[in-house]
Amino acid sequence: MLVLTRRRGEGVAIGPDIKVIVLGIRDGQVRLGIEAPPHIKVHRDEVYARILRENQLAAKTGAVPVEAFRSFWGKTPGLKRAR
User: Fold this and answer.
1) Alpha-carbon distance 64 to 61, whole Å?
2) d(Cα 83, Cα 81) in Å, to the nearest integer?
3) Which residue has the higher pLDDT, 61 or 15?
4) Phi and psi (nearest 5°) for 70?
């Protein structure tokens, strides 16, 4: 782990594409700005942990029976069944 001291306006580069900048410090909280290309997802730790949990739950979900899909298909307005 790299531990640094930064002042407001100073930053850290992570590779050529990611930059973290200290925007402000107030009441024991640090505001950070993160510049990254659009294809790199940036999340808070707790949000990322929830995404991982949801993905794990979704991977454990069993297959949907074909009959359940067919009944859904027939009740959804605007969807037409292929013949």
Assistant:
1) 9
2) 6
3) 15
4) -65, -40
pLDDT tens-digit map of 2-60? 999 999 999 999 999 999 999 999 999 999 999 999 999 999 999 999 999 998 888 88
| Nearest alpha carbon to residue 12 among 42, 33, 39 | 33
DSSP sequence for the chain: -------TT-EEEETTTEEEEEEEEETTEEEEEEE--TTS----HHHHHHHHHHHHHHHHPPPPPHHHHHHHHHHSTT-----
- Backbone torsion region of residue 17, taken as left when φ is above 0, otherwise alpha when ψ lies between -120 and 50, otherwise beta: alpha
Q: Which amino acid is at 42?
A: V
What are 2's two structure tokens? 């790299």
